[in-house]
Write a structure and sequence with these properties.
It is a single chain. The protein has helices at about 180-185, 225-230; strands at about 25-30, 35-40, 55-60, 70-75, 80-85, 95-105, 110, 115-120, 135-140, 145-155, 155-165, 170-175, 190-195, 200-205, 210, 215-225, 235-245, 250-255, 270-275, 280-285, 295-300. With about 300 residues, it is mostly beta strands. β19 and β20 (about 280-285) form a beta hairpin. It comes from Streptomyces luteosporeus. This is Transferase.
């Protein structure tokens, strides 16, 4: 009996991309002095054998409601059972906090945990001569133990240096970067303390400048008494700016050129008593959550 012929349908199915193991994977970070970052993480089992495998490191701005602002960095096997993604300094990453995820195949992006971080190149970083915005990216562990980045993009940039807390004055030193002629920029410039609750209230001090064309050091001396005159209780915050002149360019003074993502509890300065018309007060230089330099004026706690 002749066999009955049948028509068979053949469906070509691609094997699914190798998946990461249960739990969130971790990524090691290496920073370079130009502001770039390299991320290395363990590859899923079978990655090297699956030529079609693809994945990406996903940088998502904190608080984003959708994926439209995501920055995708392709992941590629390194040949050592690891994957690598690179964020070059030339890729503009807007200022803010970016949560780091990994995406593979059809899996939804998963948060990455922090691994080893080599940030030595960020310590005492000295940007080269350029007028392009300065890119600073510092990886850090969130309070929930996840990997995130703090990104700054500033030009010009006034890098805070030594802060001298005297009995009657506050001396602020810094360095100006990312301007065409730093000496000319600083000619006639001033450091301004601006009262955050009323920015029209300002205390200014002329700068003393030094340096060369591409980089210039500056310093200014602010009197504590001038800040105390405007305090009427509670907590006042004065933000410090480097200003070229009325109506001209102004730059927030900040400390960014190191490996510390949040300086609030790392750089701690002594308090100085203020003479006010009300309760005893004190002034304390401090850094904000964005590493900008400010001065906090508040009631002085009782002694003993």
């Amino acid at each position: 009996m002749k066999p009955t012929s049948t028509t068979e349908e053949f469906t070509i199915v691609s094997a699914p991309a190798p998946a990461f193991d249960a739990g969130n994977p971790s990524a090691d970070c290496i920073a370079d002095s130009a502001g770039g970052l390299t991320f290395d993480l363990d590859a899923p089992h079978g990655t090297d054998a699956a030529a079609h495998w693809s994945g990406a490191l996903v940088l998502r701005p904190r608080g984003a409601e959708d994926e439209s602002a995501d920055v995708l960095l392709p992941l590629a096997p390194t040949g050592e059972g690891r994957l690598r993604a690179v964020l070059p300094s030339t890729v503009a990453l807007p200022e803010g906090r970016w949560d780091v995820h990994v995406a593979s195949g059809e899996e939804p992006p998963r948060r990455l945990l922090p691994g080893l971080a080599d940030l030595r190149s960020l310590v005492d970083r000295r940007p080269g001569p350029s007028t392009s915005p300065l890119a600073v990216r510092i990886p850090y562990a969130t309070r929930h133990g996840n990997l995130s980045l703090r990104s700054w993009l500033r030009g010009p940039h006034a890098e805070a240096g030594d802060v001298h807390v005297g009995d009657g004055t506050l001396t602020v030193c810094g360095t100006l970067y990312r301007v065409e002629d730093a000496a000319a920029w600083l000619a006639g410039a001033a450091v301004e303390a601006r009262l955050r609750r009323d920015p029209a209230v300002r205390v200014a001090a002329a700068v003393t400048a030094g340096g060369d064309q591409d980089r210039a050091d500056f310093s200014a001396v602010l009197p504590w008494a001038a800040l105390g005159e405007h305090w009427h209780g509670g907590t006042d915050v004065w933000d410090l700016w480097l200003c070229r002149g009325a109506g001209e360019e102004e730059v927030r003074i900040a400390r960014l050129l190191d490996d510390v993502a949040d300086k609030r509890h790392v750089f701690v300065y002594p308090a100085r008593s203020l003479s006010t018309t009300g309760a005893p007060a004190q002034a304390i230089p401090c850094y904000t959550c964005d590493n900008d330099l400010s001065v906090r004026v508040e009631e002085r706690p009782p002694v003993g």
